Amino acid sequence: MADVLPMPGRSAPDSTANAASAASPRRSLGRTLALTNERVSGALDALGTTATEGVRAATRRLTEEPTGATDDWGRDPVLVRNIMFLAQLRWNVSTGGDQHLPKRRGALIVVNSPRLSNSAIFTAFAISEAIDRPVRFVAKRELLPVTAFDQRIGGLQDHPDEVAGALRADEIVVLGADPVNGLRSVGSVDHTVIGAALATSTRVFPAAATSTPFARRARVEVGRATHPPRKRRGPLTELELADRVRSDVHALLTEMGELGTGTAFDWLPMAGMGGS
Q1: Ranges 6-15, 202-211, 258-267, most confident
Q2: How far is residue 161's CA from residue 116's CA, in Å, rounded to a whole number?
Q3: How many CA atoms lie less than 13 Å away from 213 in the CB half-sphere?
Q4: Looking at 8-22, 211-225, 235-249, which range is the least confident one?
Q5: How far apart are CA 164 and CA 71, in angstroms?
Q6: What is the pLDDT of residue 262?
Q7: In terms of CB atoms within 10 Å, which of 42, 88, 105, 123 comes out highest?
Q8: Is the dihedral of CA 57, 61, 63, 67 positive or negative?
Q9: Nearest Cα to 118, choosing from 86, 162, 72, 75?
Q10: DSSP 273
Q11: Rounded to the nearest 10 degrees, how much is the dihedral formed by the CA atoms of 93, 98, 99, 105?
């Protein structure tokens, strides 16, 4: 068979051009992967920077305390610092109303507790960072028993006498309301712990905490001190004050106008990748 000759004015297919054409999609894919890696790396760097800046004020205070030292209630400041750093990796917390709290005296803060929530711990860490003071919490768990680990991160036994001892020593303590379903709901407040505040002449403050499972944004808002509706003697005072602070916490949640869960599931690793 005769060879096919190229037509005049036309050139034979260029193998170099074909190779370049085939390589073009590979270069595009490579550029896309490189850009994706660059953006992911930038996001992780920004996340680390935010966490470092957010915890810097707390670490300045905590690193001055001796390593391995624990206080009269078993709190380990170095462990608290590390937990606060991890919390900053998960949440970008804004804290408001902390100016209402006393500078040196003790206070009892009551916060809402959605079911399966660690809001008392979350609130204690956030307020501690905001006011640059150790903040403790009443350690009561819905599913798990209170452990020595709770005490090492600032937990107090769920007993009025221990809370009264901390308040008498001018400590700030966070008490979670009883766990309930619903983002706007507030459970009952332990009137015996409120009684400990009354017995030590300690002011009681409402607080509301919200967070969201698919973003880093979280918020803690502290209200003005709650006072009983009337002065009286006997156990009715602590009951009335417990009802009043519960109402004030609910009012704060309504004013915040944010939907969030604040549950333990907010700690899931991928939950923090949705935004800031």
Answers
A1: 202-211
A2: 26
A3: 8
A4: 8-22
A5: 16
A6: 59
A7: 123
A8: negative
A9: 86
A10: G
A11: -140
* Secondary element (H or E) of residue 157: strand 155-157
List domains and CATH numbers for the chain: 52-273 (3.40.1130)
Q: Which residue has the tokens 């005296």?
A: 105
What's the rounded Cα separation, in Å, for the pair 64 and 102? 23
Q: Which pLDDT value is given to residue 274?
A: 34
Residue-wise pLDDT for 255-271, tens only, equals: 887 656 556 555 454 33
Contact yes or no for 111/218 (Cβ under 8 A): no
| Predicted pLDDT at 98 | 95
Calculate the CA 75 to chain-centre distance: 19
276 pLDDT exceeds 50?
A: no
Q: Please state, in angstroms and rounded to a whole number, the distance separating the CA atoms of residues 105 and 202.
A: 8
Task: State the burial class of residue 263 (Cβ atoms within 10 Å of its Cβ: 0-12, 13-18, 19+).
Answer: middle
Instruction: Classify the phi-psi angles of 175: left when phi > 0, otherwise alpha if psi is within -120 to 50, otherwise beta.
Output: beta
